[in-house]
Amino acid sequence: MKARVGWSAGSGGQAIAAAWQRVSSGQRDQLIDLGLVGSAVGLEIGFLSDSLGAPGSPPPAIPIALSVLAGLLLWFHRRSPLGVLLALLLIEGFLAAINAYPGGAPAVIALGLLSLQEERRRSVPALVVSAIVLQVGSISSLPVPVLAWAVGVYLQTRQRYVATLAERAEQLEREREQRDQLAAQAERTAIARELHDIVAHSVTVMLLGVRGARDSVRRDPDLAEEALRRVEKSGEESMAELRRMLLVLRNQGDGAALAPAPTLDQVPDLVARHREAGMPVTLSRTGSIRAAPPGIELTAYRIVQEGLTNVLRHAHSPSQVSVHIGYGDERLEVVVQDDGRVAPASAWEGGHGLRGLHERVSAAGGELATQSPVPPSIGGFRLTAQLPRPKDQTP
Fold it and tell me: What is the CATH number of the domain that holds 321?
């Protein structure tokens, strides 16, 4: 039975919280102000009840009416917190002067609300004036207004702190999105430059082949036919590369100097450079080693490069780093793995390098997967890519 009661109470609280969240901010303020008005009127009339009808005290209608008026004035505290406080202090002083013995609840609440809304240079003088009026009129002891002012200051500080955190979080999110966009654009530019080399080379070969075929078509038709066959093959390769990359490329046209695109033949040199720098890295290759299309070769090289770079940045004291390239009949597999102590997942997955690799591999028609730790008992990080490898590619 106790468990059921607890569950019902918890469900009721959750329902109330959910309903409160659905209320607009303006309606919430109105509900809060209504609660403050009701509380102030109830407390003040409660303090007056002991003196109502006593000898020398005014008729009950006067202090009750003033108490209700004081509570209603709190409704306007958002418009003029200082004006409301001064009006309530006058009402409290008048009630004390006619021996109504008020408790000062409306004025104390107004002081707390003022310290919540106003700067301290304005709320501190208001505290001093309120404390003097309430103390001289024997309405309230000194700690009460001081405590109300302190609570308001605390709530104001907390509100500003929460607002600052929310603003900072929004700013960081905007900056992150901008960095992601810049990183993606930079990656597209890099791919465009590298692809430019591939296409430019293919077009150059095609032009030379066409000119050679034109010069020899009459005197040596077989030679011209062979030249045209090479032109056809080069054109097919160029079209395949363009189809893979067209969706993610944008012609920048900056005229920058372009370097030859690296291939898998340069991976041993890349591994050797990292080994000379102190990384315990090894390279293994399986299957029939033969060339892949230039775009696939470039993508595979970048995967190895980014994987080793991530080991340098994020892996802690790896004892073994392995690079594996598997040449299948139709797929090219690239794996980079280490056994270092695992860094936080955000350090690996949140980097722009891996985002660029995902984009690059997807554009090449492949798949990229990450795993950490591998296996859980050892730790480390694994980067695995599967890239297409046409069967008809010549050795």
Answer: 3.30.565.10
